[in-house]
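User: I'm curious whether this sequence folds into something compact or stays loose and floppy. Could you predict its structure so I can see for myself?
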Amino acid sequence: MSTTSDLVRDLNDFLRSLDELLRTRTAQEAPNIARDLGAVPQFNGALDLLGQGLGQVGGGVDVAESTVAQADSAVAGFEVLAATIKDFGDGGALVEAAEMVDLPAGPFETVAGGIAQGGRCLEAALGVAEVLPDPRDLRATRARLQQLQATVAALKAQPAANPPAAIAGPQQP
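Assistant: Here's the prediction. I'll summarize afterward.
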C-alpha cells in the first residue's frame, strides 16, 4: 500500500523527470516548430496555462507543507506523552503506592487501566501519523514545481524576427 509519503516522493521523481525531458534538445525545438507553423500564440498560450497550473499546484503544496509541519510538531509532543504513559506501565507502581499507604487498590487499578488503554490508543494514532509526508519532501516538491515553471517559461517561442514581406502587386506608374 502506498502512503502519502510514497506519493510525494513519486511526484518529486515525476517532476524531476518532466523537467529533464523539457530540457532535452528535442523539446527545445518545439518553439521553432511552433514558429514555423505560425502557431506561436497558441504554443505560448499552452505554456502559460501549464505554468499557471504548476503555480496553483505549488500554492496547494505550500498549504500542505505548512499543515504537515504543524502536524509534525504535534506528533512530536504526542510521542513524548506516549513514552511517558508507556513508562507508567500497567499502573503497578500506582497500585503498590496505594497499598503502602493503606488505600484500597481497586480505584487505582481502574485509573491505571484507563491510562494504559489511553496509551495504546495514542500509540495507534501515532502509527497513523507515519503516513504523513516529511515537510522537507514537500519543500522539495515546491522547489521542483518552481524549477519546472522556469523551464516551461524558457520554452516560450519568440515571434519571427523578420516576418515574411508582403508580396507587392504591380507598381503603378
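Summary: The chain has seven helices and no strands. The chain has a mean pLDDT of 84.
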